[in-house]
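Reopening closed ticket. The problem is back. First fold of the pair:
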Amino acid sequence: MKRWLKAELHAHTADDPADGNWIIFHSAEKLIDKAGELGFDVLSVTNHDQMLFSPSLHEYAKQRGVLLVPGVEATLAGKHVLLYNFPNYDSYWNNPQIVARQKGPEQLVIAPHPFFPSSTSLGNQLFEWLHFLDGIEYNHFYLSWLNFNRRAEEAAQRFNLPLVGNSDVHHLFQLGRTYTLVYAEKEISSVVEAIKLGNIGVITHPVSPLFVANWFARAAISRPRYAMRVALSLLP
């Protein structure tokens, strides 16, 4: 039976090849536990260039009421793209042509934080890769007076693509800040189809000053140059 499912489709763990154990310290199990506590029905672990998914982890999530969707934040031509339900994913997939060839009706591709101040964000590359994108992310990290999601909203409306709310979880306190409600059955194929059809809604609100301070305190220790770049981008 279809119902509204609470979903987080962009989250990282300590196993992440790029950010694990120096930015991210929670395990996949801890992430799943927290998602279950917060009432999430659907979760995807999207480590950078690594598909962290197994039958045992899927079962672990199921026992906590969470549907685990296979996912990865792949690096294609130096840009990040979220891929879901690609069973044959391999880290050698480093360009959009490979993904386009591998993609079928059961697969889902979303552009994460496309216009945020990061060299790995798609930026204007988004417009060249529209042929294999199924959605655009609305990212949790924004303020009431500064929101890099605005251009993402405009692009989604212009090209009739759904907006998918995600928190890009690197720390557990981020989980639940922005998420997606998906009208689907609680199974992977139904969730994928619902997102492609736009049968979703984004639940979001600006982060608080305390949240920003917490994020910057952690970022200043683990990746100070990135924290400084983000800080400068937030200046009026």
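Second fold of the pair, where the issue appears:
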Amino acid sequence: MSQIAQLLKYQQKDAELLAIEQEIANSDARKKFVQTKNFIKKASEKLDQLEGKSQEILSMLERLNGRLAEITEVLKEFENLDELIEGGADISFYQRNALQISENIKALRADIANLSAAAKETAEEYQALKKRVIAAQKQYPVAQAEYQEYSNTKNERKNAILAELSEIAKDLDEVVLRKYQTKRSERIFPILCPIKADRCSKCGMELSLAGKEIIASGKVIECENCHRILYLE
């Protein structure tokens, strides 16, 4: 049997294996397992972000409260305003300062209120997400076990096909088989395709003049477009 015929036989059996792999990949058990796994990973990253955000807000609140305390200290200078005025101090100067300080305090209190609200919102989001992560972590081993159990039901058929592929591969050139397996890993399937009217029967790409000569000599070539192995029936 020629290498092409042997490789086509290998591909035909490999198609059965691929069908089982796709069945497992598209199963509800795997989808549930993958969704749970991905949620835990992404949610854990989000929790870290929220924790960092919370620390940043708390630091900003600490700075603002410190600034508010400083300004409050300045206000104490106005407790003896009557005495200062009696001593000949410029009242307009103190009035301007008092107005500016009042505006600063108002702005600081508004910023503190906004940050406090943001801190509360962040803390609530963190706690809600943490509860979901804990629930998902409990569900994860269950989903994993269900997926494994489902996969195991396909193992007998998979192992039988793998054994047949191993037997067929004994009559294949190692270089040819390695090239086939490389393309298989790149999710190219079918890998061997016949030429139809000087075109790739899979993607329709026309062969170059050099490619036509190679095919005519009984050899195989690689499609320049979809990279499948082309042969002449």
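Update: turned out to be a display glitch only; the data is intact. Residues 198 and 207 are 6 Å apart (CA to CA). The domain at 15-171 is CATH 1.10.287.1490 (Helix Hairpins). Please close again.
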